[in-house]
């Protein structure tokens, strides 16, 4: 790929009701990534390839549990006409070509950070990755509900067959009601679908202070700035103000908290930058709006000022490439070129992630392949 392979970094925020990624890693997340299904429409199919659940070595000697693989955009490109420069005529030319550009991903399960590398021109981007994984998470959730349903009907008392501890993680409030527990003796699909909510997924690009400052320089007048605080992973906000806003929102039962600054005459850009720098860790959606020197309105989000690295060569082996990408990510974090929040996993979640990955890694012991 000319000028190197673009590498993007993002925060992968996944919940199923009250359950976090670690809670549903075995039952929903890994099955979603290991699916053989495709997300298809018209002449395009998105599918995952060479997915491996593994441990990647870290410089300090520890391991990083991860899901690695490729997202392929399998499609047919069609041509209806072509311009002939010799005759100067536009000629009918019905042709088609099958092409399959790809991107490689490394999802770090301890920190929920995503490393995403475009392997080819026209590779599927982060939006395609999010849409595809969201679709597969929904399928995995439905499969789990069907499994609960079938297990409950295999014996007389459904409570002995269904993993009620997992259902408590999904919907603790509903599971605290006696009628719900009674209903699990012979649960309906409607009840189970209410107890296992649809998975939510946010894939938010990571940025740095410099990329934000460079983008803000484009504004002659910055008249609108907002920060939408997302439901985060087990992390601590880098800014005490954002932490307080989250806490107040939680106390009020809010699902979303948004901070907005507006001034038609223009906000003080340096102060806006200072306020927003702590919102670049992937736990918030930032929106900026205003006018440039030509008085043309411009808008920007995390996507416009995301951090992008370049990788000259991507090894053909999926595991070797994942190790290279992890090294690049660690370097960018160390140099402050991407900002991340401090993870705050419980000991139980850490142990759960490592146990699930270890069981899969044993099965993949001979899976390092060049295909």
Question: What can you see in these coordinates?
Answer:
By secondary structure, this protein is α+β, with helices and mostly antiparallel strands. Helix content is 33%, strand content 32%. The chain has eleven helices and 16 strands. The chain has helices at residues 25-33, 126-152, 164-170, 172-175, 178-183, 189-195, 209-216, 240-251, 269-276, 318-334, 347-363; strands at residues 5-16, 19-20, 39-41, 44-57, 63-84, 89-99, 102-108, 113-118, 199-205, 221-229, 235-236, 257-262, 284-291, 297-301, 308-311, 342-343. Strands 1, 2, 3, 4, 5, 6, 7, 8, 9 and 15 form a ten-stranded antiparallel β-sheet that branches. Strand 1 and strand 2 (19-20) form a beta hairpin. Helix 1 crosses helix 2 (126-152). The longest helix has 27 residues, at 126-152. It is globular, with a radius of gyration of 23 Å. It starts with a strand and ends in an 8-residue tail after the last helix. The model has no long low-confidence stretch (mean pLDDT 88).
